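Sequence in, structure out. Go.
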Amino acid sequence: MQNKLTTLRYFVETRWFKKFKSAKKLQVFQEKMVIQHMAFLKEHSPYFAKLPAITNMDKFKQLPIMDKSVMMGHFNAMNTLGLDKEKALKIAIKSEKSRNFTPTYNGVSVGLSSGTSGHRGLFLVSNEERSAWAGAVLAKYLPKGKLFGHRIAFFLRANNNLYETVGSTLIKFKYFDIYKPMEDNIAILAIYNPTILVAPPSVLGVIADKIVSGELSIKPQKVISVAEVLSVKDEKRFKKVFRTKIIFQAYQCTEGFLAYTCEEGSLHLNEDIVYIEKEFLDNRRFVPIVTDFRRTSQPIIRYRLNDILVASKVRCSCGSAMTVIDRIEGREDDIFLFKDSSGKLIKVYPDMISRCMLYVKNIKEYRVVQTGYNRATIYLDNIDAAVQKAVINELAQLARKLSFNSPKLSFELYQLDLSRKLKRIERQFK
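Output:
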């Protein structure tokens, strides 16, 4: 009963009260929440108890930056519940291998990070945090005018008690395991006939193919892309196939529920839930440094992500003061590195490569993998000579524009692998 009340409270607060039309009011709210949160952690987390008291934002910004390796290295001292890392890992790994995600550790949900940073990570979510998360997610994504009676289909590589929390007698939730045969999932999906479809772009592509071929007939009211970068090419295709004006995005990761797409189609940072510092790479691209001021079991404080976000130049017509980002571009370690004629390294951002592929006709699926300073492999679902020539020309134009040496390209047939996150643009060397 308590969990349902918590979900209801956060739903009401998020949906109707914490709208923040004023940037000043948002700033005051965030500062208050951060300082209160740090006071709680100083009392309950052995790690933060040793750090100076935080009484203002200037002192807060002097705290050390955290990343996955730091969090895992200090896991026992950081968490506020006295949980042991090795015990938590055993539960998380067993759940992952058995595909049974119901076991908890002293009532706390434990999961493995599915990120691509190269470090194995753990995340903890308490009952109250699960309920708060469910309230916030439902408030931001349930369609206007109809709150109940929805059937949510959620495709993901690993389920967790966190996701199951959204299910109730008023809203049905069904998890689809990507590791199971996709044909079986599609058959069940057809019967379930979801009103809200949540899936990574790679899975949405498979579902879209089935709709186009006539093998599947579903008409979800909302389509929400999660877990992978949504490319411009995929977004356009999904809008057409699902017959919708907006493909919504939920920027959710181990470190929190970071951004959502509003009803006007803009992607907003969830600054009513998290405080985000921006480490700018150029005048618009930035790496987010996240502080989740609602999460107490496993503190996320000044946590530097490896993602590249692109800030928008305009404020959204929905009126929210929360930051609008044009897109989630990719990961910082997937910035391509080419050399110019003098040997100087030239950075090429993932979106620049994606846009080259956007201009190539007669391809639907692709991956571009840089394997060396002067080498890249292009994976395409159509590798005929004309398509290869078009790709070579687009990348050559980009090379001339940015003054780097054109790389040697090799072409291979694209093959979808749903067992791993789809990265359309990937750098495979340090």
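Check: The chain has a mean pLDDT of 89. The CA atoms of residues 51 and 326 lie 36 Å apart.
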